């Protein structure tokens, strides 16, 4: 099951106003111009449902959220924290929002899945099983 709506597009995501403003400002920096992942993230932000921080639904992945997910193909569990590029540390599970899996996780809700290939090319289907807000 790919994550698509009847229109063929991925479902729109929910992003807090603060995260959207910080991400848009970051993406305006020269180093992200013509970067395919940055352009894809900007496209997601354009389609996103932007909500006030206080109205952000529980169980939605935002910046600095700790995300529990399971690989539906292997049953392997992962805990990832979605961070800005300068904070990334893959060994510590701190995944940049500009890494392909990071940009795919932004705005997902508990129960939603993404198909993703590891840097080694192994296909994964990650299902979000828990989201813990930054604290």
Automatic annotation (TrEMBL):
Q: Which UniProt keywords apply?
A: Kinase, Transferase
Please tell me whether the keyword Kinase is annotated for this protein: yes
Gene3D superfamilies linked to this entry: 1.10.286.20, Transcription elongation factor, GreA/GreB, C-terminal domain
Molecular-function GO terms, alphabetical: DNA binding; kinase activity; RNA polymerase binding
State if Signal is listed as a keyword: no
**InterPro entries reported for this sequence:** GreA/GreB_C_sf, Rnk_N, Tscrpt_elong_fac_GreA/B_C, Tscrpt_elong_fac_GreA/B_fam
Protein name as annotated: Nucleoside diphosphate kinase regulator
Provide the taxonomic classification. Answer: Bacteria, Pseudomonadati, Pseudomonadota, Gammaproteobacteria, Lysobacterales
